[in-house]
Design goal:
Helix content: 40-55%
Distance between the termini: 94 Å
Structural class: alpha/beta
Number of strands: 13
Radius of gyration: 26 Å
Order of helices and strands: HEHEHHEHEHEHEHEHHEEEEEHHEH
Low-confidence stretches: 1-15, 17-37
Strand content: 15-25%
Length: 351
């Protein structure tokens, strides 16, 4: 009897010990998971606080309701004194990030890279983008570059060259690309095969940039989102109020971009297919682009190939050259080769 009671007590004690052990294990796992969850927050930094994008993007990324798993934690001010839309707004946007979103403002890009896992290069001026991208790539931080990717085609090529050389994920895009009504044109059931398109957008000019780089880039990005790569040559007709740029693709397809500077402006267009003619959908705002940016920083996989972005900027560069030649066609291959030669000379001069 005593033996039986003792054995029974021992068994119960063993079970209690086992239960307690599992409690401690589960508790440990829970604590570990909580720590892992905290560690998985992707810390982001912004370079160039002179565009409304920095406030809009930070507000969306840092909003707990969106559950992005990312947070903008640091910013480098930057700014361009010779562009009013930069110089006149940078103080306001910097203050908003610091005071309303708790973003730490640092003195150098190198300091920013020490504090973050990924970088958004947001400077409204494309000219300093190459110089600003260099330390980010040297620190091997994944990099998203807002429009325009750079101030000239040579710098676009050089940024991608450095990123590839250092195995750093890097891409650039306008927010227009990811609107469902634009991205969805590539496989729209009423179109069949895409034969061409006509796209329009605002096209204000900025003296320090090639004509289409400043605002026309949005419309040209829409055009390439629909058409894909393969543009051979560009012809441009220019007036004070309007630009019309026609691209000829290597498979015979034709696409037209119309840049608007007077009268009613907006974003839109029509796509021509083998089965039908379909108007593109409406602009969906920044949300779809921010979704792609967050996914990029989590996966390290750029959603837009470098080849397509290079062709977009070659298209716009060739359009400027066609303007200089009074509307003569200009091959994209030609402007790319000229830009590559400039980069080769630039690298040689640094040796």
């Amino acid at each position: 009897m005593t033996k039986h009671i003792f054995a029974k007590g021992f068994t119960m004690a063993a079970r209690q010990f086992k239960v307690l052990s599992w409690v401690f294990i589960i508790s440990g796992i829970s604590t570990s998971c909580e720590a892992d969850a905290q560690e998985k927050i992707v810390r982001l930094g912004m370079i160039g606080l002179d565009t409304s994008h920095v406030v809009s993007f930070t507000k969306m990324i840092n909003d707990p309701k969106n559950n992005y798993g990312c947070k903008v934690v640091a910013g480098f001010v930057g700014g361009s004194p010779d562009i009013p839309s930069s110089a006149n707004r940078i103080e306001k946007f910097t203050k908003t990030l610091r005071d309303e979103h708790g973003v730490e403002i640092v003195d150098t890009i190198e300091q920013l890279c020490e504090r973050v896992d990924g970088v958004l290069l947001e400077s409204v001026d494309g000219r300093p983008h190459l110089a600003q991208a260099r330390p980010v790539i040297a620190a091997r931080k994944p990099l998203f570059i807002d429009k325009p990717m750079a101030g000239n085609l040579a710098d676009v090529l050089e940024i991608f060259h450095l990123a590839q050389e250092n195995d750093v994920p890097c891409w650039s895009s306008s927010s227009l690309r990811f609107s469902p009504g634009i991205m969805g044109m590539r496989d729209h059931e009423d179109l069949g095969e895409i034969m061409g398109c006509t796209i329009y957008s605002p096209c204000s000019l900025e003296a320090h940039h090639p004509d289409l780089y400043w605002y026309g880039v949005h419309g040209v990005e829409m055009l390439f989102t629909i058409m894909g790569t393969g543009c051979q040559s560009v012809t441009r007709v220019h007036s004070q109020d309007t630009d019309v740029v026609v691209g000829l693709w290597d498979d015979g397809r034709i696409a037209t971009y119309r840049g608007l500077r007077k009268g009613k402006t907006g974003y839109g267009g029509v796509v021509y297919g083998t089965k039908g003619i379909v108007p593109i959908g409406k602009y969906a705002g920044y949300g779809p682009l921010v979704d792609e940016i967050v996914l990029f920083f989590k996966t390290g996989k750029p959603p837009v190939p470098a080849e397509e972005t290079i062709e977009i900027f070659a298209f716009m560069t060739a359009a400027d050259e066609s303007k200089r030649r009074n509307g003569q066609p200009v091959a994209l291959k030609t402007v790319i080769e000229q830009a590559e030669q400039r980069n080769s000379q630039r690298r040689q001069s640094k040796k």
